[in-house]
Structure formats: structure tokens, C-alpha cells
Amino acid sequence: MDLKRLSILGVGLLGGSIGLAARSKLSDCHIVGYGHRRETLTRAQEIGAIHEAADNLGDAVKDADLIVLCTPVLLFGEVLKGIAGSLKPEAIVTDVGSTKRSVVELAGRLLPAHASFVGSHPMAGSEKRGVEFARTDLFENALCILTPTDSSDAQAVTAVEEFWRLLGMRTCRMTPADHDAALADVSHLPHAVAAALVNMQRPEAMRLSGKGFLDATRIAGGDGGLWRDIFLDNADNVRASIARLRRALDEFEGLIRARDGEKLRAWLDAAAARREELVRERLRDEA
Q1: What does the pLDDT read at residue 66?
Q2: Beta strand 119-122 with 143-147: parallel, antiparallel or unpaired?
Q3: DSSP class of residue 124?
Q4: What is the CATH number of domain 178-286?
Q5: What angle do CA 193, 69, 2 make, to 5 degrees?
Q6: Which of 140, 94, 87 is nearest to 117 (CA)?
Q7: Strand pairing partners for 120?
Q8: CA of 190: how far to CAs of 227, 232, 264, 280, in Å?
Q9: Are the C-beta atoms of 4 and 29 separated by less than 8 Å?
Q10: What crossing angle do the helices spanning 101-110 and 76-84 adopt, rounded to 10°?
Q11: CATH 3.40.50.720 segments of the chain
Q12: Class of domain 5-174
């Protein structure tokens, strides 16, 4: 794709980082940012994440080659409706949402036939929020999952894949349904568990917590509104993940109740080995 104009709808941590990374790689690309808060757009311009700020969706996407939706997932329908009438022929729309089935369905229903939509989920971010935490290198060596469907335009899929790779990401492809089921296990449920670990603490115990507790619950510091939307949008898969976790905890409790030290150690060692293999795989991917 000859990317001359990029539109970022929602200039927070991810949107701002996309702008910074794109500006570092694409010197001839004009980047437009859209958001509800003028102070956020002003800050995005000050740090160099965008060239231009737009107050309405139509102006934000006019003549854009690529549009990236970076708003909360439950706002995607409203945003897609707002841009549908202003997209130029062959415009490509993608997103950064943590759930994929709903946005793919909405895009297929709301966007005009002359535009293409390709779902994306860059697996990068932080518990921090806001454009002030945007980083040029946020996407380096991270994984971006693309979720094309049978009706996706092949050239658009390739163009979106090349865009994320340009920002330094590795890419893979999954169906929207497979994505949502897998991410419930490895992303959505862990956030809920971290929040539950914090919420269950007695004040007297919390005062004694150390680095291990802070490490285990770091992601509980994320934005509640953003995560609320993710949990509601992927509720069926999150509930299935909760059931699997409950079975694992029941197994753990049973080993303690039976005072079966050998099996308890084997259960813990199996988890440690599995995690160590994941770390090795990640290091190989990033090499």
C-alpha cells in the first residue's frame, strides 16, 4: 500500500503509539487524529503522534488510505456508522480491538462496498492509559493477530499485514471466533484474575504484600471502562475460561486436601515447565 494519509480514531496509548511509530517509518505519510477531547488531540500533536487533529469523524477519514479504530470496542458501531459515508474508494479500515467477532460483523454490515475492513489485534500495550504514555517502540517484536474472513479482500489483508510489520510487529492470522476464544484464556481472564486477587485482600494482608503480589496483579491497574467493554463483548468465551480455571483450582484444592505432596509438586512443576517453554519460544520469536 502506498500509504499517504493515515487516520487514527482514538489517540490514546495505542493510537498515539501507532502515530509515533508510523511517523518514524513513513516520512511522506500525513497522519490525522480524531478524539472527543481537544486536550488529548493537542497533546498528541505536541508529542508528534499526529500532524493534524479532526473534530468530527467525516473530516478525520476524508481521503485516508488507512483508518485505524482505536476507540473502546463498544464504540466501534458508532464510529463505523460515522465514517461510512466519508470513506474514499479502496480505503482500508482496521482496528486494535481485543475482541474480533463483533467488529467484523459490524464492519460487514455498516461499511460501504467500496471500502475494505480487516480486523487486527496488536498484542502490545500497558496498564497505563493516555497518549502521554505513547511510545515509538511499543510494537517492536510484539505479535499482531489479523482476523480476515472468507469475504475479506486479499490485497487489503496483505496491506494491513505489511503496515503492522512496518511498525516492527510479527503477524499471524486467525478467524474472529478462534481469536476471541483464545484471547479469553490468555488475555481477558488473566486481567479478571488479577483484579480478583486485589479485591479479595483483607487490609491487614494487603499491607504485607511484596513485589511478587505487585507483579502478579500489575494488569489490574488497567482502565476499568475499557476492560468492562471487553468482558461484555466476549462474555461467552470468558465464562468458558472461568470454568476451566475453576476446574484447575479445584484440582489444586483437592491435592492440598489430600495432602498429596508428590502430586502437588508435579502439578506445580508442570506449570513451571510450561511457562519456561513459553519464555524460550518468546525469546526465539524476538531474536
Answers
A1: 98
A2: antiparallel
A3: -
A4: 1.10.3660.10
A5: 130
A6: 94
A7: 146
A8: 11, 15, 22, 21
A9: yes
A10: 20
A11: 5-174
A12: alpha beta
β strands within the chain, DSSP E:
5-9, 30-34, 52-54, 66-69, 92-95, 116-117, 119-122, 143-147, 170-173
Residues in the chain: 287
68's grid cell: 485505524
How confident is the model at residue 130, as a pLDDT? 86
The grid cell for 223 is: 482502565
Residue 96 is placed in which grid cell? Answer: 486494535
Confirm if 86 and 243 have CB atoms less than 8 A apart.
no
The answer to whether 141 and 170 are in contact (CB under 8 A) is yes
DSSP-assigned beta bridge partners for residue 147: 119
Beta carbons within 8 Å of 97's beta carbon, 6+ residues apart:
69, 73, 76, 103, 119, 121
| C-alpha to C-alpha distance for 58 and 52, rounded to whole angstroms | 14
Kind of pairing between the strands at 92-95 and 66-69: parallel
pLDDT at 129: 80
CA 85 vs. chain centroid, Å, equals 26
The label of the residue with cell 476507540 reads 71
DSSP H helices in 26-73? 38-46, 57-61
| Residues sharing a CB contact under 8 Å with residue 5, sequence separation 6 or more, in sequence order | 29, 30, 31, 32, 63, 64, 65, 66
DSSP type of residue 141: T
Question: Does residue 25 contact residue 162 with C-beta atoms inside 8 Å?
Answer: no
Amino acid making up residue 61: V
Question: Is the pLDDT higher at 138 or at 287?
Answer: 138
Q: How sure is the predictor about 55, in pLDDT bands with cuts at 50, 70 and 90?
A: confident
DSSP state of 111: S
Angle, CA of 112, 172 and 8, to the nearest 5°: 45
